[in-house]
Amino acid sequence: MTKQIDLGGIFTLPGTSMSVKRMGYGAMQLAGPGVWGPPRDVDGAIAVLREAIAAGVNHIDTSDFYGPHLTNQIIKRALHPYPDGLVIVTKVGARRGEDKSWPHALSRQELIDAVHDNLRNLGLDALDVVNLRVGGMLEPLEGSIKEPLTVLAELKQQGLIRHLGLSNVTPKQLAQAQTITEIVCVQNFYNVAHRSDDEFIDELAKQGIAYVPFFPLGGFTPLQSSALDAAASAMKATPMQVALAWLLQRSPNILLIPGTSSLDHLRENLEAAALQLHTEIIANLEAINKMPEAFTKNGTTK
Q: CB neighbours of 92 closer than 8 A, spacing ≥ 6?
């Protein structure tokens, strides 16, 4: 029997009864290479999901454009009927091209279709939280999000969506969104080496809104830094565990969704929630995003 461990405490999404463990699970890596097609080991993917739930995870991040469709189908196969208290957060606003690209899908019909695809493939009557994904691949792009968010707000009124969030947005776009509907979470690119959202996170914390960093470990090209390595050695942990622990200690409104298709990596990620970083280590890590060497392994900043 899997032992439940401390997962960084609990955060309640604003204006909801949804309380989630701060260490969650991101389902992107359950699909095949390039987030395309089925995984090499479907049974292994199912085992990872079931292990996460058994360990106490109650927040899964997904999207029907992962695969596409296949990741949600694997979640359904592994976990449906879903345990009480499990919060599944999905996102819309993109699709997969035949060339495996990620074009925007923000028209009214595309958004409606995406919500229904998520409902069908997850086996749900209503989606807990839907994030509207806009902007570029990694960075927000200023501009109005009124039109697509209004479509999702209408679907929320119809009962197909319970709560709404945003992904890849600026503070200005959040402010516009809040004139249309309540926003419970923001999901942007952020990690110990990429910290352009520092002020945004602090403002969201004041409002009680969750901040969910995507690519908390650097994404497809993991973080690499001598400061991370040194901290890991001092803590008798892995560099990736230290990077996750730093995020949990960065702000109480940060929720983590590291993804993996490996049981061993899943356990390592979850165990990071128990790490308490010392003041000196935190000070050293704070300087990583100012270092020229704070690169991903392919030599490009992320």
A: 63, 64, 105, 111, 114, 115, 118, 130, 131, 132, 133, 152
